[in-house]
Amino acid sequence: LFTCIDHVAYACPDADEAVAYYQETFGWHELHRESNDEQGVLEVMVAPAGELTEHMTQIQILAPLRPDSTVGKWLENNRPGLHHMAWRTDDIDTVSATLRSRGVRLLYDEPKHGTHNSRINFIHPKSGKGVLIEIVEPAKH
Ligand code: CMX
Ligand code: CO
Fold this sequence. Notes:
binds cobalt (II) ion, 8-stranded mixed β-sheet, 3 helices, 2,3-Dihydroxybiphenyl 1,2-Dioxygenase, domain 1, alpha+beta, binds carboxymethyldethia coenzyme *A, globular
């Protein structure tokens, strides 16, 4: 069903501060950033190298754009830390149908827009053994 771990997401109030720390202290590289208004987050993708290789896992640094967004509400209840992990697939529609047939609770009826024009959905933490899991189908080039 899945090809690799696409990213692990870290949520914090100040993305720029966290990205600078990753760059200066750990030598990670910023590859991409965008604001996702629908999700209410600023998303910065950082990687251990300056260019992505096929199955490289990134870290997604998240900061809320508004206090009433999912990540904003999460930060009211949690300290900055790991928020979700994302599993990559070539075919989110087939994966979603297969998981639903196995009784897995997905958050959205249809995939939504994710980073870099990807299509995303989420496995509810109740179906993810306590972990929020994103399913991501990267844009095909
Ligand atoms: N990881 C694990 N568990 C989580 C969680 C998280 N990130 N967020 C909430 N939960 C758990 C809570 O601990 C709580 O568990 P209990 O009932 O056992 O106490 C339960 O889920 C409900 O918590 P809540 O505070 O009421 O949270 P909501 O139901 O309002 O929201 C969720 C939870 C999953 C529906 C919401 O986080 C969501 O819609 N997430 C998907 C969207 C998202 O995360 N977008 C930002 C990233 C975008 C991107 O990656 O591109
Ligand atoms: Co994500």
